[in-house]
Each structure stands twice: as C-alpha cells, then as structure tokens.
Amino acid sequence: MFELDIRSRKPIYEQLTDKIKEMILYGILRPDEQLPSVRTLSAQLTVNPNTIQKAYRELEREGYTYSRPGKGSFVSPAQQGSLAIKRAELRGELLRLMAEAVYLGFTDAEIGELYREASEKRGEESGDD
C-alpha cells in the first residue's frame, strides 16, 4: 500500500503523509475510510510507531483525517471551505513552480505534457481508465 524511500533526504513521516494525501486526493482512500492502525502500518513498513503517529497527527492537523478514540484514524469527508483553502495554497505553489520552470526554459508544450501525464496518472491510480 505504501512505499517509502529510506535513502531519501525527506523524513519518513513526510513521505508517509504525502503518500496518504495523494491517495485521498486520487480517491483511493474514501471519506470515512479507516487508515491502518499505527501498529499495523509500523510492522508493515518496519518503521518506528512514533513516526507513524507523527504522520497521522500531521494529517489530522491539516484536516485530511480525523481520529476517534479507541477506533483509529479515518479519512475526513471533503469540506468545501477547507478544500477551497487547499486549492488556493496549491495554486500559489504551482505558480511558483511554473515560474521556475519558465525560467529554466520549459516550453508551453513541455508544461502541457506534464499536466497530461499527471492527469493520466490520476486516472490510472483511481481506476478511471
């Protein structure tokens, strides 16, 4: 379910939060679906349970998940207000990255191709072929 790169400079908890966010955004994890328990995921990934717990806390802080005492962590239902905020933040980040891409010489065609690749990848991962 989750693949982590132990040689990456990116902390493991950030890799995990990014992967879970991606799975939520692509519809692989549905609203109110339960995430694997900290112990289960820790054993599966051979990662310290505290690292998993840190990732889950970060996801909850950002509004991607919620927890129920004694039950575990669940995917939050999409809320229009928080979704709009996330979209605005992502738009700003994309503009920054696009400006950098233009500076580095990316053409309109190359940027368009990157968009198509991302769109195709989303379709493949959510099974919308």
Automatic annotation (TrEMBL):
Keyword terms: DNA-binding, Transcription, Transcription regulation
GO MF term set: DNA binding; DNA-binding transcription factor activity
Keyword match tRNA processing: no
Domain HTH gntR-type: 10-78
Protein name per its UniProtKB record: GntR family transcriptional regulator
